[in-house]
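Extended Data, panel c. Modelled sequence:
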Amino acid sequence: MALSIAAVSLVAGSGFSGCVSGRAVSQPERPNLAIAEDTSRQRALISLRQIRVRNLGSVPGEGVVTVAVIDSVGTPLMEVALKDGAPIRLPAASLGGAEGRVVPMSDLAAFENLVDSLARAEARFGVRARIRTTESDADESDNVKTREWGPWLPMAPSAEVTIRFTFAVSDRAGAMKVHLEPLRVPPGASVVAAPSGHNLFLKPGLHTREVRLLTREQLRHGSVFSARLTLTDSVTGEVLQQHERSAVFDTVPPMLSSYRAVMLRDGRIAIQMQAGDRNSGVPESGVATLYSADGGTTWHRQVHGFVEDDFGRPALFETVIGPFPRGTNLFVSARAQDRAGNASLRLPVDARVFAAPNNAELLVDAYGIPLHDGNPVFVPAMIARRAAWVEAAKTSHALEPALASHSNLTAADRFELRRIEELYAVPTSFNQFGVDVSGFTQVDAGTVRLASDHGSEWTALRIRVRK
């Protein structure tokens, strides 16, 4: 997968620390800057494109925002300052500071490449966001938030699950508080061990803490158990490290839909699909295209880049395979895996293949895979009437006649039309590269059924490359 900063989202913030009913109650003469948090799930909303900084204090404040990639034990692998280290200034909470300010992460190629390599290796890693305030801050404990990526542990009814944290302590560390807390506990389950400690002087090296859970026989499918380990300086209250782990009871594989393969004139094939899992979710590296050019004897795997939806979850996954010589017969399939390890190898029933007009490959090269809103090469390729919708999307008022003329549209079609409205600049992009938006034609691609080594059945498209 191409886990890229241009295609991921980092929203950070602080829950209710120092705040009651939206009003700051901590020391009124000091700002209270914070990296935000999703209070409904009690986790930092961190991914990789932007970060939200909030001020819960009654006076303005400013600070420098840094982001760091950390390994599984909390050791920083790379740290960069956003906006070239320039301070971010926020007004008082009542004047917009509580809502916060979004600081984009851009032009961080080395940062992006590191995250991409870790994700492709399926390694456990995290991104830590920090606001270093210019003046004294009312609450140092919410100035740092960390979000981690990696496999989730399995959970089952009437069983014990152990979440284990391993963290590194440097030789410069002083007295610290080690706080281990469960965040989400399934109804009726019992937390049997969650040790914490105050004013501890830990020797340099690796240390381990764990929390155990006993589940009930009636465990609802999709139940999640998550815990957080926080190390704070006993003197200043500054967060030194933060780690999160999760376990889930999930035996259902993810669902794939809206599969679109676009054959480009240079022998490449651009592929986009949607993937979702209501229980454990689909990770950023969870979708791949499998393809074979020798009738299924040898298979290759291409991980997809992803485009997030409005809630920060991967929704669209895109990639490009090839180029292939003209006349090549390909088997093309898809594999999606959720965080619990469940995998699906069945193509969705709505899988479609299209042949692109001249110059469409320029859109792929110019905009990249993935693009934040999805590469425009996929926009007119869904169904034949999409071309008319794209033209209608040039102006928002032109959409109403388009809707009126298609009164029999399904809910899915209406969603697609609204998506075109949001991508109103697409026709300009097509015209810029000389792409005929009406030139996308659907190609008949047969479906073949294959058997895996484990005896389960999976499906693939049979595609003949043409130029």
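The two ends are 27 Å apart (CA to CA). This feature is highlighted in the accompanying rendering.
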